[in-house]
Amino acid sequence: MAELITVDDPDDPRLRDYTGLTDVELRRRREPAEGLFIAEGEKVIRRAGQAGYPMRSMLLSAKWVDTMRDIIDEVTAPVYAVSPELAERVTGYHVHRGALASMARKPLPTVDEVLRTARRVAVMEAVNDHTNIGAIFRSAAALGMDAVLLSPDCADPLYRRSVKVSMGAVFSVPYARLDGWPRALDSVRKAGFRLLALTPDERAVPMDEAAPHRLERVALMLGAEGAGLSGRALDAADTWVRIPMAHGVDSLNVGAAAAVAFYAVTTGRPES
Amino acid sequence: MAELITVDDPDDPRLRDYTGLTDVELRRRREPAEGLFIAEGEKVIRRAGQAGYPMRSMLLSAKWVDTMRDIIDEVTAPVYAVSPELAERVTGYHVHRGALASMARKPLPTVDEVLRTARRVAVMEAVNDHTNIGAIFRSAAALGMDAVLLSPDCADPLYRRSVKVSMGAVFSVPYARLDGWPRALDSVRKAGFRLLALTPDERAVPMDEAAPHRLERVALMLGAEGAGLSGRALDAADTWVRIPMAHGVDSLNVGAAAAVAFYAVTTGRPES
């Protein structure tokens, strides 16, 4: 059972995990370096725990103690009870969800480990918007993608906003970082995956004709909003696929495009 | 050719169309009542013009005059050149995109008019988030839905944020308001449409089995984020369909779910 510790000094060093949460640049450096990430709100904190991330500490406003009682009873990490004003002083924002937990990261699996049992993998290049990363993980989880591989310059799926937007899906879909881009895609191909690059390019095969749900192993490559996949990434792919567009529209947003593509590679359909 | 008028008084009554743009409640009342909507940024202003919406006026900061020169030359509406500071005083926010246009609304088509030529229609119930409305229109346009029908309590697709998120797709996909909900769905059925209700309910038919791309005419019913379709709407449907979910995830976000469902009803696929 955790200790419940009332803290009323915003400079208390025990609250250091929670300082300056609105400073994206600061947190982006600090969190991986210090091996932590922040889970926000009851649901996400529970999911992080269920996924086996060890808790370093929790920060609660008093009225959340009852709701979180079972977690407080279970964990051994310290639980700091603070006023909403003090939470705001420390974090830099009004903590609507009333509960924050600092969780310890786990070592990421290697690419080989991730690919060993997977059949449908999303490969993201340079997706560095935390909202988009979270949205893509949420769709990947819901639509049955087995894993996600990230190019070295993708944003951190465990950043607070990504975790929140994903509704905790970043905990349930295994992911790994590719080392060397796009060179590392060779190892994905060697593991038996067909590399499909999603692009609006008209020379690409329409998704319905490509029928990727029939392939044994698929790695679906996605680029960032706006830029899309780089030329180097497109060159490294086996096949270009596109979602047919109507009404002269340029493109879907990256979240919608990812969802459609995940559906197309995971879901069989009777003859048309 | 439009007059280019320099204005330096924030209380100039000619700027009234642009006052208080950040006051959602105020604008939500005023814009339909006064028959206007606001297009923001070069691309969206051009698309509104191409879609045949008459311009009432334009508000530009000086450095945007060159970019918008061809539009200024074309329209007869007055164009107000203002400083960025004055634009912010009038609108209530810093106008990053440098150009705003007040456009005149056109009468909405009737439901019958919209249904006459359509084969794939999205029907939204109580989607009152402007971002979601915009995202759904963008996907509907890109994925080839022919029209959108809105329950009486859906938000306004021409609200500034909806227009922006849709990238102007609210101008290219015809839409109409249903009068009486869910009673008005009868008229949709009578027009030859099969009413498919999208729901996570396990009793629903998986989308791939339902194979809605084979149906002659489909009206795909979507509810709001969180709540989903109401019981009354579900009762009024012909068939419940669901997107199969993996990993124990509750649901996709409404934008992702809509995109997948639109793809499923618009896109044929070879035999699996």
TrEMBL record, chains A, B:
Keywords annotated in UniProt: Methyltransferase, Transferase
GO terms of molecular function: RNA binding; RNA methyltransferase activity
One Pfam family here: SpoU_methylase
Ranges where the tRNA/rRNA methyltransferase SpoU type domain occurs: 121-263
GO biological process, one term: methylation
Gene3D superfamilies: 3.30.1330.30, 3.40.1280.10
Protein name: rRNA methyltransferase
